[in-house]
Amino acid sequence: KRLGWAIVGLGDFALNEILPAFGACEHSKITALVSGDRDKAREVGSRFGIGEEGLYDYESFDEIADNDDVDIVYIIVPNAFHADLTVRAARAGKHVLCEKPMAPTVAECERMISACRDNDRKLMIAYREQFEPHNLAAIRMIQEGRIGDLRQINAHHGRELDPSSPEDQWRMRRDLAGGGSLYDIGIYSLNAARYLSGEEPVEVWGNVSNKPDDPRFAEVEDTMCFWLRFPSGVFAECSSSYSVSSSKRGTVNGSKGTLSLDPLSEYRRHKLTVSDGKEMCEQIIEEDNQFAAEMDHMSLCVRDDGTPKTPGEEGLQDIRIITAIYEAAWTGKSVTIDSDYSRSPED
Ligand code: NAD
Fold this sequence. Notes:
Layout lengths: L2 E6 L3 H10 L6 E7 L3 H11 L6 E2 L15 E4 L6 H10 L3 E4 L7 H13 L4 E3 L7 H11 L6 E11 L5 H4 L4 H4 L3 H17 L5 E7 L13 E7 L5 E7 L1 E12 L3 E4 L10 E4 L4 E3 L7 H15 L7 H20 L3 E2 L11
Helix pairs in contact: 3-4, 4-10
The structure holds nicotinamide-adenine-dinucleotide.
């Protein structure tokens, strides 16, 4: 039996990537839509065979408790609304997959984790790259020693913020987005540094640079450079920017070679190259639909009472580190990270 999913928010990412990905799912199907725009919900619903009984808005959302066709709620709205909607979904008896970044503050992340725990519901954060075959192959090769001792990581994510696009308008507002490029896309650099090294950082540094006199950056940062020191001595040099052309890459340097993911976090068509110190060699890896893999993983966790690979605690850890990076950037001093979180090892 496929588990039933309610999609909360019918914006750019939900419409263009997530809804189509259900076509590639084996264990998940769409059974409800939540939107503030009834006409849009009806139109999208008609394409996916969802009638009026499966349509909700943000006022009627709690009534989803009575809908037995919904097992899991997938939250795909601006970051500031992730926490409240997660809590409401858990209280309605639904399991939750929530988009990254988990929430603007550590306190909100903790509230989400508590609500799901108190209602005995599963909570997963949508780190799709941890389900993407090229990234998984990179993790495996590093663990197998293909590039020797891991010493250093570079990761960068950038794009041009476009004020004419609806999806970028809330990203310019601190109250809706939480922060700027670090929150939105630097989180891919940060999360990759963590899953590629298999370690958690103990100290961070940060530095912000805003394009001068650019109204896009009145409330949120443009470019953030940040550095992470891991317990083994591995160092990650990361960045994010809202004023560069699209770039999403990561490089891992080891004692015997280099591994490069470029792009690292595209929606499709990733590329992994590995060198033994002499020649870069592209690895041939079969593409998979990372969104479908992620959603089916969540469905199987719910069906079989498993633990999500990227639980709320994984999202909280990124927000904890991001908060420390901002503090480091504002104070000009490094900040130590005090956390006993550790990711479960890759299978
Ligand atoms: P978007 O603006 O296109 O979509 C957001 C949707 O939320 C819109 O339909 C909007 O109407 C709705 N919404 C509900 N309540 C709202 C309110 N009070 N104010 C404004 N909008 C409201 O944005 P998006 O790019 O689809 O991003 C949505 C979420 O998905 C964000 O958390 C973002 O970080 C995440 N996202 C993740 C990925 C990924 O690859 N994992 C990619 C893009 C976006």
